[in-house]
Specification:
By secondary structure, the protein is mainly beta. The protein has eight helices and 51 strands. The strands form eight sheets. The chain has a 22-stranded antiparallel beta barrel.
């Protein structure tokens, strides 16, 4: 395994030699730049060879140049997303001039016909005329048109399934809390989770952990835990300050080989930069309890209207330090929220009565409404240096810091809450060099992510009464730190006619530190299982920390790719690429299995899914996975050679990586041992496991300590083991579709299929009947000091079938309106559970079922329209058929291994039973020019009406049932499954109707 020091030396050497070794070949990463391609013809329609193409960035005056080849084609690569004045001059002096706006990640097309009387560049607003390259004069764009508008532009000649979100949309469309990721929902196949405690994105059937977000080429991949994005693990904060985001691109499928560490969607964004003019902004937005309607749940339960207040504010400034050479940009955003959550037991009357009678407490002590305060700050600074027309240097820093008291509500008491402290820092140095037929982009960056949730009552034990109430102190305090150091060099070479060849190399060193203290105070579990003689009189189990320590880990990663965008003909383009990724320590490779653990593993029966020798290592048995070779292929065929009808498709393999937390349990459980105590009324075995006769003296930490000190066998730790040859998760993707121009609209229809494999999960290795029966026979492992054995398996699979339809008419100032529609018909399925699949022999034994969050139909409509007197109206409307949720059948018992997992969907209660999810967000804004119409200064005042029709989008349905007969109530079952309707929902996916006030000043 490479050490960080060794890799740092390699990085330094790489940085020094990058220019000399790679520059002659060429480079650009589409993660933060764009490309402009096209064909130039003379007045007679013949290819214009030798024409010069000059694109000038209107903000910084940086100039890019190219010369057309024998076929009249050209390519400008490495262009920063911005407005450009493009001038094309033929060998005879004929010219073509156009102002275009390029968006991040685009491979846009601008074809031209030269004419001696071409109009000069203007500041005319964009029109609705689509881009075209038809040879017929009538089909050519007219002078003054902006061919590339950047407003959700769909490049027609691309195999990628992607959606661009522009600054106009970010500023204009309504949103709840300035999280720029919320606009990712405008892309088909992508869902934004707008939870009040957990915000993020998911795509297809893959978990949120398989997405990736790039900001100026920095990967924000969360390598510690689920969530996919650093800082988004159970956070209601914003990934990156929206005030600093210029625009972004959502790649749903078939993205090219330059993108790494993602099995589903990728978001690539760019930040704002300074220009030759000073620009600044100050904003504030506010909503509170008085502007919010009382929720259906609170009304139903007779609760008072809960406290609610959200204040967001910020300031930014950018401009020149040295004209045409050195620019700056800086931004700050604050986010203060006070949101209340209601603690209200969902237990049945019998459960609550039994709790009140046997626990010594009353459920009313814990119920009520409590405030959950959140405080967030974001800082960003950036310098841009352009010493000449060939070079650009960027230096930037960002910091995100948050505190968030959450983790209560429903059946969880406020005293169980924790303060989730979150910090994400990024540092970036980037150098872009443009040669005659190449561009080289070098990127060095550092990310530090700290996740430090702490219990607000760390000295209290916790008491978990199943299905009724959880109270006491949070059972864990964590400190987790992820630090990445990465360098990347990307090369784009345009010196071969008809080809744009890209190649790149990325090196990264990752350090992980985990100091998790779980069950410092014990957690007691109370269950009602008449068949096991259990009720709320005493706990069925308890967990207690026995030992503790810190975990350190390091991992070195390398990725290399090559990609060719090949114009086979004027109509057909092929995208052919391959990527290879390698990491030195993906599965804690140097781990040495302790002798006792090896003995316990070898004492278990070998089965078709478990071989003990696959889990025992002397520190040399886990070889780094070298098979992460990911070929990617795509095509686009412009049938009429005028961009009106384009058939496209692609196939590719996409490797992700396992979160460190997924595989660290093997080491963590040996360092931070947790004792599991099992209790019964008389000490009789239960489910094949030994128990201890209950004594009230055990209801404290000291009591449990005394018990385990007297007899260590009563609370043995579990043994976790990682499979030596486990593979990283992989996703195979296939897509095919057609793009069609329909007048001023662009339509697209895409068929998608994705198949995910190798997801990491844990299963029992101690099943009865020689490993093929129910859980669990632990007799073979208890002599070695373990209460059970759980082993890792790369056996989670997903599959996703979908049809995407989009219809876009991009907003332009000339037309005064824009409309974008995205529809997804999808089916997401999975086997197994999540990180644990303990209720069947293997994940495959679960069979396929709907993935949590699967939604068969979803429609998102966004629109912008100009109104008289400077007003502007906009909307985002989302309609969905309802997301699947997991339901556990515990009729056979609640012990691990007895449950059955299924999926259900909520009842449809919107638009006369057509949809289960409806949200209509509206904005009315007015821009005031205080210093005259020609001034750059403007004041914007806006009112957002969020969830305008107060739709009740329910969540928190009954997630389990037990159909055993209830001996205390003849003719009834212990825990029936309640319907997923308004009566039984415990929460709402969206807040009730509320008004949000916004004001901003820009210049």
């Amino acid at each position: 395994m490479l050490s960080r020091h060794t890799l740092a030396l390699g990085i330094s050497a790489f940085a020094v030699t990058a220019a000399t070794v790679f520059a002659p070949v060429a480079a650009v990463a589409q993660t933060s730049t764009s490309q402009l391609r096209g064909q130039v013809r003379d007045a007679a329609g013949a290819p214009a060879a030798g024409a010069t193409v000059v694109a000038v960035n209107t903000g910084t005056n940086q100039t890019f140049r190219a010369t057309t080849d024998a076929n009249g084609t050209y390519s400008l690569t490495g262009l920063r997303p911005a407005a450009y004045d493009v001038t094309i001059t033929g060998t005879g002096g004929a010219t073509f001039t156009r102002r275009v706006i390029l968006s991040v990640g685009q491979s846009a097309t601008l074809d031209a016909r030269l004419a001696a009387a071409a109009a000069p560049a203007t500041d005319a607003p964009a029109t609705d005329a689509p881009a075209t390259d038809a040879p017929a004069p009538a089909a050519e764009p007219q002078a003054g048109d902006i061919v590339v508008t950047g407003s959700r532009l769909r490049e027609t000649r691309t195999s990628e399934v992607a959606t661009n979100i522009t600054q106009e949309q970010i500023r204009t469309l309504p949103q709840t809390d300035r999280n720029f990721l919320s606009f990712a929902a405008l892309a088909p196949g992508v869902r934004y989770n707008d939870s009040e405690t957990d915000k993020g994105i998911q795509s297809g059937a893959s978990a949120a952990s398989q997405v990736n977000v790039f900001v100026d080429g920095i990967s924000l991949k969360n390598k510690l835990r689920e969530g996919g994005i650093a800082g988004q693990q159970n956070s209601r904060g914003n990934t990156f300050g929206q005030l600093a985001v210029q625009e972004f691109r959502v790649l749903t499928q078939n993205y090219k080989a330059e993108y790494e560490q993602a099995g589903s969607a990728i978001i690539t964004s760019v930040t704002k930069s300074g220009t030759n003019e000073f620009h600044g902004e100050v904003f504030g937005q506010y909503t509170d309890k008085s502007l919010t309607q009382k929720s259906f749940i609170d009304t139903r339960e007779g609760n008072p209207k809960p406290a609610f207040e959200r204040k967001q504010y910020g300031i930014s400034l950018g401009g020149p330090i040295i004209k045409d050479k050195l620019f700056f940009f800086a931004a700050y955003e604050g986010n203060d929220q006070d949101r209340a959550f209601t603690v209200n037991s969902t237990g049945s009357a019998e459960q609550i009565a039994e709790f009140n009678r046997l626990s010594g407490r009353n459920i009313s002590e814990f119920e009520g409404t409590f405030v959950s305060p959140f405080r967030g700050d974001f800082y960003f600074g950036k310098l841009t240096f352009t010493p000449d027309e060939r070079q650009v240097f960027d230096l930037s820093f960002s910091r995100r810091e948050e505190t968030d008291i959450q983790g209560f509500g429903g059946n969880t008491a406020f005293e169980y809450a924790e303060n989730k402290r979150n910090t994400v820092d990024t540092y970036l140095f980037k150098w872009t060099y443009s040669g005659n037929d190449f561009v080289n982009e070098f990127n060095a960056n550092h990310l530090r992510y700290g996740f430090n949730p702490v219990a607000i009552n760390p000295d209290l034990p916790s008491f978990d009464y199943a299905g009724t109430i959880l109270f006491g102190g949070k059972d864990s305090t964590r400190r987790e730190v992820q630090e990445n150091w990465a360098v990347r060099d990307d090369i784009t070479f345009t010196g071969i006619d008809g080809h744009v060849v890209k190649a790149g190399l990325r090196l990264e060193a990752t350090d992980i530190e985990i100091n998790n203290r779980a069950y410092i105070q014990p957690r007691f579990f109370f269950r009602r299982e008449p068949n096991n003689n259990l009720n709320f009189a005493f706990p069925a189990e308890a967990l207690l920390e026995l030992t503790n320590g810190r975990i350190y880990g390091s991992n070195s990663q390398m990725g290399v790719y090559v990609q060719d965008d090949w114009d086979v003909t004027e109509r057909l383009q092929l995208n052919i690429g391959v990527r290879w990724d390698y990491e030195s320590n993906g599965f804690n490779n140097n781990y040495v299995t302790p002798a006792a653990a090896a003995g316990a593993l070898r004492a278990l029966p070998t089965t078709f899914y478990f071989n003990p020798e696959d889990y025992i290592t002397d520190g040399s048995d886990r070889k780094p996975f070298k098979g992460a070779i990911a070929p990617r292929f795509g095509f686009s065929w412009d049938i009429n050679d005028d961009q009106s009808t384009v058939v496209f498709g692609g196939a590719g393999r996409y490797y992700d990586r396992n979160n460190f937390n997924n595989t660290v349990d093997e080491l963590s459980r040996s360092i931070n041992q947790i004792g599991r105590f099992r209790f019964s009324a008389d000490g009789s075995p239960r489910d094949g496991q030994p128990t201890v006769a209950w004594n009230p003296a055990y209801l404290t930490r000291d009591g449990l300590r005394a018990l385990v000190n007297a007899d260590p066998s009563v609370a043995l730790p579990e043994l976790f083991a990682v499979k030596n040859n486990a593979r990283p998760p992989v996703n195979d993707q296939f897509s095919a579709g057609v793009r069609q121009r329909l007048g001023i609209f662009e339509a697209s229809l895409t068929g998608s299929y994705q198949r995910g494999r190798n997801g990491y999960t844990n299963i029992f290795a101690t099943r009865q009947n020689n490993g093929l029966g129910n859980c669990c026979n632990t007799a073979p492992v208890t002599p070695f000091g373990y209460s059970n054995v759980i082993v890792g398996l790369d056996g989670l699979d997903t599959r996703y079938k979908a049809v995407f339809f989009t219809l876009d008419k991009n907003y332009t100032a000339a037309s005064g309106w824009g409309l974008n529609i995205a529809y997804t018909l999808g089916k997401a399925e999975q086997n197994g559970g999540d990180l644990f699949s303990l209720d069947a022999l293997t994940p495959d034994a679960y069979g396929w079922r709907a993935s949590p969050g699967d939604e068969r139909h979803r429609v998102t409509v966004s629109g912008i329209v100009d109104l008289p007197a400077g007003f502007k109206f906009s909307t985002i409307t989302t309609l969905g058929s309802g997301q699947a949720y997991q339901v556990v059948d515990s009729t056979a018992g609640q012990s691990a291994g007895a449950n059955l997992f299924t999926a259900r969907y909520p009842e449809k209660n919107c638009i006369k039973g057509v949809f289960a999810f409806c949200e209509v967000n509206l904005t009315l804004a007015n821009k005031i020019k205080p210093f005259g119409r020609d001034s750059d200064h403007e004041i914007e005042v806006a009112i957002d009406v969020l969830n305008a029709f107060n739709n009740k989008n329910f969540e928190g349905f009954d997630g389990g049932f037990n159909n055993q007969p209830d001996p205390a109530n003849p003719g009834q079952v212990i825990d029936p499954l309640l319907p997923a309707n308004a009566q039984n929902a415990t929460g709402l996916l969206t807040l009730p109707r509320r008004i949000q006030l916004r004001v901003g000043y820009r210049f």
